[in-house]
Amino acid sequence: QIAAEVARLLEAAGLNREPDGDEKPASAIKGLFSSALANEMSPEEIKAATALRFEPSLSAGGVVFIGEATDYFRYGAIASLQLGLRKPWKSWSLSAGARISGLRAFNDSGVSGGPLYISTAGANLQIGTGYSRLYRFSAAASGGVAVISVTGDETLHKAVPYADAGISIQVPVRKTFFVGFDMRCLMVFDEDMLIMGMAPALSLSKEF
Fold first, then answer.
1. What DSSP element (H or E) covers 25?
2. Is the pTM of this model over 0.85?
């Protein structure tokens, strides 16, 4: 019985064919196992993996200012909320949505006046890895309107354009929860001074 089973498997693999047969043994053996690889994900699983998803994200961290701004402040704190629709494919993904943030700069010693606050709101575009990767690595850019506020005896507000860009990496902690690290370069285009800073932050996102 064992000999008959072995003979059947050899016949299926093409090992008992004549040298002038239509199919080489190596390709026949490959054919035996390729169907399992092709069916690694069913059509239903692929459809679910590539479905459009709503993804909010929260992040918080610090800011290290560079350029002209360092004459007045060197460090700050920032928090951001990002809302986006994410479309994943096997090797890459695309996300588009909105991003808002709030920043406070800490005045250097010897600098008079109240603290500086910057609020931003704008569109956000992000491209990254697809569903074939357990982790997420992406690059993003956003732009819109920033409101600069200086508090003190008199509170002053000014609306100016802003842009930021950066990278992020996220890993899953549960099926639809991700934690990660972001690094963004923020530029606020005040007519009197270009405010620039690097903003590293920790992030938490949820996928729906």
1. helix 25-38
2. no
